[in-house]
Amino acid sequence: MCPIPRLDDLLDELSEAKTFSKIDLRQSQHHGTPETPREVFFTLIKHNLFRKLEKCSFMVPEVPFLGYIVSGQGISVDQEKAVAIKPWPTPTNITEARAFHGLAFFYRRFIINFSAIAAPINECLKKGDFKWTSTTQATFEEIKDRICSTHILVLPDFGKLFEVECDASGVGIWAVLTQEKKPVTFFSEK
Prior knowledge:
It is a single chain. This protein is α+β, with helices and mostly antiparallel strands. It has helices at residues 7-12, 37-46, 79-85, 94-106, 114-117, 119-126, 134-148; strands at residues 20-22, 57-60, 62-65, 68-71, 74-77, 163-168, 173-179, 182-189. The strands form 3 sheets. A 3-stranded antiparallel sheet has the order 3-4-5. A 3-stranded antiparallel sheet has the order 6-7-8. It is globular and about 55 Å long. The two termini are 37 Å apart. The mean pLDDT is 84.
């Protein structure tokens, strides 16, 4: 049994990729890592893995992947997902607020100083009684806007120099990892 790879590790493996393929499997018990498209097809046949060809794409410049678009330029928010975020209704209870927070937290890598920005929503989730204030509402709208208008994050190239820009304040700390003045990821903690 192979461990499930971390999303960050999977994205790091794409560092110099320019074309991408995606195979959608109906059932999967095999955890191999074939190297070529030919090996992929032979592995699928050998292990009786059935593919949905209408959901597959081969040697294309970009592919949707777990809410992202991955391309030779880097990683961006899948705009089909962003379209669903923009009209997200204002949460009226803690369950709805947690659902939005989980979605926003998933896209935090695209938002500089996310933890400090999201602090009012985090406070709303900590308390036993749900209170959605005008500050929380402003934060909610800002996060939706930022998710819908994010940067493209370049794929890391481990043969090139990384630079880190950071800032600490009374509210939190944030950092931007860059290569050649382009963001690779944003990080923040409160």
